[in-house]
Amino acid sequence: MHFKPRLLDCLRGYNRQHFVSDLSAGATVAVVALPLAMAFAMASGLKPEAGLFTAIIAGFLISALGGTRLQIGGPAGAFIVIVYGIVERYGVANLIIATALSGLMLFAMGLLKLGTLVRFIPVAVIIGFTNGIAVLIALSQVKDFLGLRIANMPAQFTGMLQALWQALPSLNLHALGLAAASLTILVFWRQVLSYLSRISPSARTLKFISALPGSVVVLVLAPLAVWVLGLQVDTIGSRFGGIPSELPQFQWPSFNHDTLALLILPATTLALLGAIESLLCARVADGMSNGMSGNKHSDKHDPNQELMAQGIANVVTPFFGGMPATGTIARTVTNIKSGAVSPVAGMVHAVALVLIMLLAAPLAQHVPLATLAAILMFVAWNMGEWRQFVQLKQYRMPYRITLLAVFLLTVVVDLTVAVQVGLLAACVTFIYRISSLSRVEPVVAHDHPELSGLETQVRGYRLYGALFFGAVTLMEDISKQLPSSALVLDLKNVIYMDSSGTDALKELAQQCERQQVHVVVCGLQHQPLDIAQRSGLLEHLPAEDFSADLHHGLLRGREIAQSGPSGSNPGP
After folding, report:
1. Fewer CB near the last or first residue (10 Å), C or N of the chain?
2. Which domain holds residue 128?
3. Based on the domain organization, do 495 and 393 belong to the same domain?
4. Which residues pair with 460 in a beta bridge?
5. What's the pTM?
6. Rounded to whole angstroms, how far apart are CA atoms 361 and 65?
7. CA 131, chain centre distance (Å)
8. What is the per-residue DSSP string for 24-74?
9. Which domain CATH number covers 484?
10. In a domain, 305, yes or no
11. Nearest one of 33, 17, 35 to 369, comparing CA atoms
């Protein structure tokens, strides 16, 4: 077991200047994380403090124990749909168990060094379920965006649409106006900053304002608008009673083995999605920090260490009132742009959130839910890669089908089913493409004088690509046109061979033996040679029938043909 947090390396040569940079970046990230953590929790069917506890505990552990230098962990929008479904179907107590199970899976993935395998998940699958989740997040916020009265919002797509349609008469124009204004500020905040830069006489004031994210601005302005205008809208206080101004307490849920078995699949989905999100985020952080520091190697993350840290965080956090956590791109990008230099910034961000929660908890009860809905809709829009739909015509049909199938299944059916179908479709597509690259070509006498006059007695074939279960028909094609004396197989260009491929070769060799046809194999090397030896394929092949190249293999075939039936020595 190789467990070495990146923090240990970063602390070498760590100085006061580094700490000041991390302190400033961590405080900035905490301001950004505060509204997102509460919004993600409430959208998941949990109390707002669940998001804060997750950002604090998981954020601290992921930074302290992770394999990246600048990544920030915490609750993520990608989990909203899954968590909401688990809470609705199994309850909050079982969410704790499912999250802890996903943490154990993540730790096991890192321990077994499976971090690099996550990168092999096709882009079409990732884009499909990311865009699908974004649609579901936005749809789930329509209720609070419009101020609709819905007691229990269904988790399924059709149920959501039906509930929203039936509740449409309860539309709250105050909530709609406030949400629309909040969303407008979020969308145009950068343009507002550009305008302020032209009219502000103080560069220091502008620098302070530019450091404020739009989400914080609307969280300050929205409660003021509610108070000044007397708007009748739901707030965190009216629905949840505010957030606690104390640290979370350990809680042990009650569960039974029957429910535990049902949670395996949701937990697996949480683990897989968490691994994908965190490692994608880590790659983004690598690229940004390398570009800013000029060092191309020092910032490369350790995917296995990162998965182990994510696993520990997801095992610990739920027992203190938290929810699933992973690496978060928005907060990580903010951390890097704010000048962070080490994981200490992520730890500072967690401590800063504790201070904000302890000191400013009473103010959170005045935050309108319509404004949080606008924030989540803005997050959902930025989360999706919508241009991929426009550019679909540039890709091949299998890519289009995979992406659209995963997207539609995520929205209409279930994320777990979507990922399963997407991976299956990607595997089938991959097998088809690799098998189409594998081919067999006959060796013609025009190019090889060794076969002159012996075309019916000696035949040679070149095999290309991978000889695996998806390409075993190549052997069947050869067996239909066997020569009378010698069959020469050039395997020099075979780059991979599996057990199905060796079995197909054995069956061809056995057929040749029955028909008194000699088998000459040439060009075997690297992995195909190794598996041919281990599978016993070459056990009965004489040394003279194992040639280094096609030329010597054809000469051996000519020798066999000219020696006649009495001198032939069939292959295995």
Report:
1. N
2. 6-145+158-233+257-397
3. no
4. 443, 488
5. 0.75
6. 29
7. 13
8. HHHHHHHHHHHHHHHHHHHHTTS-HHHHHHHHHHHHHHHHHH-S-SS--EE
9. 3.30.750.24
10. yes
11. 35
